[in-house]
Design a protein that fits this description.
The chain is of the alpha/beta class. The chain folds into two domains: about 5-135 and about 320-345, NAD(P)-binding Rossmann-like Domain (Rossmann fold); about 155-275 and about 350-385, Dihydrodipicolinate Reductase, domain 2, CATH 3.30.360. It has helices spanning about 15-30, 45-55, 70-75, 90-100, 115-125, 140-150, 190-195, 195-200, 200-210, 230-235, 300-305, 320-335, 350-365, 370-375, 380-385, and strands at about 5-10, 30-40, 65, 80, 100-105, 130, 155-160, 215-225, 240-245, 250-260, 265-275, 275-280, 285-290, 305-310, 370. The longest helix has 16 residues, at about 320-335. The radius of gyration is 21 Å and the shape is globular. The two termini are about 40 Å apart. The structure holds nicotinamide-adenine-dinucleotide. Nicotinamide-adenine-dinucleotide binds near residues 39 and 44.
Amino acid sequence: MAGPLRVGVVGVGQRGLQHVRSLTALQSDEIVRLAALADPYAENLDAAKINGLVPEYRDAGVQKFATVREMVDSGSVDAIWFVMPPNQHRGEIEYAAGRGIHIFAEKPQSLFLDEVLRQNEAITKAGVLSMCGFQMRHDRGYTDIRNYLKGKWVASMTMIAEGAVEGHGVKHTHTEEQGGPANRVWTANKAWSGTSIVEAGIHQTDIMRYWSDDDVAWVRANYVERPRELQDAEGDNPIYYEVSYGFKKGGMGTIIFTKPARSYYQGRFDCIVWTHGTIKLEDDFVDYHFDGEWPPAEKPGLEDVRKVISAGPHDTAMGGENTTDLGKAFAEGVSLGKPELMRNTFGSSINSLAAVLAANVSNDLGGEKIVIDEFVSDRKYAKYRKRPAGV
Ligand SMILES: NC(=O)c1ccc[n+]([C@@H]2O[C@H](COP(=O)([O-])OP(=O)(O)OC[C@H]3O[C@@H](n4cnc5c(N)ncnc54)[C@H](O)[C@@H]3O)[C@@H](O)[C@H]2O)c1
């Protein structure tokens, strides 16, 4: 491809602005040209508002549109970053792909599996390149874990994310005009976020797949609902989530999420167990593994078995640096015709999304085991794959 990739961003909200920042940086290296922005709310396209969060952004040469169709029809972009709320898609990805536009889609690609399958069909049929917004796959430390685990069998991955209602970011969609939450914090609201497991736990789900080079085969989940009388003020997403995955190679994954209000606490626990070791995410990433003749004559001390597999500091997995690497991987993947730089495709990411959507179904069915292949195609789950009437 001659010249930098011409990129459009659809949805200039919290995450869209992070992409605008990354794309502005990549523009200096002539990897991309930020050619267009689309958002139904004119204020979100205003240069002064964008500069408030991205001072380096320059408006000159950036076309502005209210809709994706106008952006696509303008012929001004080669690739689009879709960064709109996941319940707001109305065939835009299919439209863009059908006209030869390469597709970068933020997670979750939609809240409704039928739509995701249609989006994927359009991408596949058009033969355009695609990628989903899982920036943790571009983290140095997490990639060191994946490489270390190559050729090893992973028995379990456990992640506890202690969060809080206050941890939800401020959003830019006018949800109050669309029957959504009055305070615009749509991530606390089920109809908009699909639950915190879909909105946020999809990252943990996807990174488990990345680490173990595996796919989710089945899921069981149980949630604790937030007391009804608190839901108007704190959002109607559950307060506690417990999700178990069975992976295709036989290992298990467990995700626990907590979302009380007023705690302001954030904490996490991560542990990966393989046949002969326990990997812990300390300041360094460490495997506790005895590699001498076994059993040893004397019990080794912890320091004897502690192996650093990725030197710290490691505090940026969800951060801006990895978002820029993610954008760079997609842009260069398209421009240089090297899709292997991307570390996922829209199609390969469906397993992460299907797993979290199926967790909701399992919880609805009292913790029933949901086999992902059946969830994706079996008639018995058809009603769970559809966008509900009136939404
Ligand atoms: N990868 C990550 O770490 C990460 C972080 C935050 C958000 N996200 C994802 O990014 C997406 C957007 O979330 P956000 O936090 O930016 O929300 P947001 O509400 O702040 O921004 C969404 C933007 O999309 C616009 N929009 C709404 N409908 C649209 C439409 N039909 N066409 C074009 N634009 C439309 C809104 O006006 C708003 O500006 C979600 O899918 C979210 O899950 C990903």
